[in-house]
Amino acid sequence: MVEIKRPELLQPSTVKGDEDSKYRLIYTKSKVYVNPTAYARDNIPGFISLVKRDAPNPSYYLAWIPETLLNERGATEWDKFVKVEEKADLDEEDEDVVLIDLPTQRPESYAFSVPLTQVYSLLVYPPSFSSWHGSIHINLYSGTTLPTLYFHDNESHSFTMPTPTSPPTNTVTSITAYPPPPSLSSPINSSSSWGGEDFIARVRSYAHILRSNLQPSLFLVDPSRSDIETHSTQIFDDDAVDDILAQSSYANSHSPVPAHRKPRPLSSPPTSALSPNPYSHRSSVLHRSLGTMSSNTQSSSQARVALLQSFSNITRATRHAAQNILSHPLAKPIVPHLPDPVKSLVNVNGDLEWGSWVEKGGVGEFESARVYLARWARIVAEEGERARRRESQTVGVSTSSGVTEETSSLGVFELLHSASNLPTPTTSRDPAHPVDQICWSSWFGADGRPQVRFEEMKREVFRRGVSDQGRLRQTVWPFVLGVLEWDVTGEQRDNNWEAKRTRYHNLKDQWCGVPEVFERPDIIDERHRIDVDCRRTDRTQPLFSTPSGTPSPDKSSEMDDEKARYSTISPMMVDIGSQSPSNEHIDRLASILLTYDLYEQELGYVQGMSDLCAPIYVVMQAEEEMTFWCFAEVMNRMKQNFLRDQSGMKKQLSTLQQLVEVMDPELYRHLEKADALNLFFCFRWILIAFKREFPFDEVLRLWEVLWTNFYSNDFVLFVALAILESHRDVILRYLVEFDEILKYCNELSMTIELDSTLAQAEVLFLSFAQLVADLDRRQAEELTSNAQGLRHRGNDSRGEPPSLTKVPVLSEYLRDLLKAEKS
Fold this sequence. Notes:
Blueprint: E1 23-34, E2 44-53, E3 59-66, H1 67-73, H2 75-86, E4 112-115, E5 119-125, E6 134-140, E7 149-151, H3 157-160, H4 173-176, H5 195-203, E8 209-211, E9 218-221, H6 225-231, H7 240-246, H8 285-290, H9 297-326, H10 340-343, H11 354-360, H12 369-395, H13 402-407, H14 437-442, H15 454-464, H16 472-481, H17 490-508, H18 515-518, H19 521-534, H20 542-545, H21 558-566, H22 573-577, H23 584-599, H24 609-619, H25 624-638, H26 647-663, H27 665-673, H28 683-687, H29 696-707, H30 715-726, H31 728-734, H32 738-746, H33 754-787, H34 812-816
Antiparallel strand pairs: 1-2, 1-7, 2-3, 3-4, 5-6, 5-9, 6-7, 8-9
Helix pairs in contact: 1-2, 12-31, 12-32, 17-25, 19-23, 23-25, 24-25, 26-27, 26-30, 30-33
């Protein structure tokens, strides 16, 4: 719904006293319908109108008013529209002018009125055998599409009454003057025009209308110079080449083509026995330029030259466009990574090898062109961003800080509504100065009790991360995850840890060395799934990459031999031979997961848990007990991801969908059109916390940030949103199908920059928190006003007009995003 913001409308009787409020009805047509649903009973009839606003600089408006709205205003208002419709040749300077009120905003009526200067284009579809009623789609410069208008000419008063004598300027030629459109008249009755054609002819009186050669149904309103150049390109028919070849295919042309295979000439002499050539009646620019065939060979030569020049222009324009892109400094770093056909477009001197492109026939990959272009655009943008950062570091570090430079690239995340006037948040991330061993040790006293609060520790880990030097992560992670208590002395902490170590071994002893448990059918099934997953998890890590050697024959006792036998997880020896080789650490990782399967019997083991446990095992330096309890704490946070009915994943994807809708409505609408609102391309991201989207070392840095729960227990959703927002322009411009978006997002793996993504995620969370606070404030103000019985008039306290839209209500899922773990 589009409304013209203006003061309270005046009645027609008093409008003459206010020159700024005169709206003169200059054109209207009845029985123009809006179809809200697919059912005919819901169709809404109305009048499409052109309105002039009298002023020193007059302006024109395009409006649609439903009949119900006119009925409410009385018979006088109805008669005005009928009068103007009957008098099709109404002169603007006529003394008997008709003044009306523009429609007010009423969501249920679909009424609208917009200035012609805001209309970008019209999509015109004349009546056809498949669609009895012609239609017009109105697109605005803002990207909004107004309700589609359907012209029911068989009901319209202007079509059923006797046709008035109209000036020749309003004939059909007014709409078909621009080459080379097919006729807009209905194929059912070609002798008379339809309502949309008459409407566009009238609009031509007040705006320049350009019909596109690229899309005959597209009409541009007051097009820009670039639009004129783009949409005025001459398009030749598919048979145009045959026509030109026909001109040189006569008996005396010495053509190698057999006579019976030669195309017929455009026209034949009267004495020729050839049947009329169907090409001679075509209306393309090329055919019209050929004219009538004559015996003079000069015309055929000119036609061939014209065709070759057209092809040459296309080739030259494409070559220049590609050269501009590939010769740009930002494109140079990615040239070595491009496919060979694309790389061949650029030589040492920067010239294009167009012939090699044609010979190799495209990019050489059988994939969607849009996905290819999207990936290319992403690489260019990423390389440009890296070059910008390297340049900023080279120029000097005398700026305030690296964080300030980093936040300057977050302009795309200013997603708060402009009406809120809220400040743009900034990130607090400082990954260049991680928490090191000296800093960590300074937080504890001599007795092992920390000197800083738990929240302060989490804040620093969130902001700075943990240094990867030495074994500091092995020390920090148990505190972040809550395995080790924070606000206790070192002695108390050691005693509590010993109790947990003992409990782990008791849990493991429930199956290890116990044949009646280890050989149970349900345990055998779990062992098989765990063994298969562990053998293919993180095999590039040194602990898991080396196959096990031959077992040592020395055993301390028969009890140890028996226990070792049952610590082999693979249910059958034949399975071992058919899979990747194992080693001691893979077996121990599987033992931890099997122990967790018995520890959390309600959930058990689910595929994907090995991806979460393996990095913890590596960081804990193969310490089995600490790995188990850290993994158990991680699963307490992520248990919902592995529920059998996938209800937890559905909830998180639904929450992410609502978050996209609130923070980026344009991206939400695009995903909706692409049938991608299920966000399945984010499933793997959330399920295992981006384990396969980043290199191993960066996964460790990401997880320790997520585990702090500093801002939100579901900060992973803001990381996902930050990735989507980083690539929103590529998605909006190139990707229009769900499969394309899925393929593109899957190929983002190992290409995402972690630090900028976390900074953007923090800004998004702070923006979301501000937005929620602003909505709550506005809702409280409305409740207070309603309770006091006040009626808003004019402007509010901030000098802004009162909002006509209801304050949106956020779901509980979205509000839960603001909840963080309490210490």
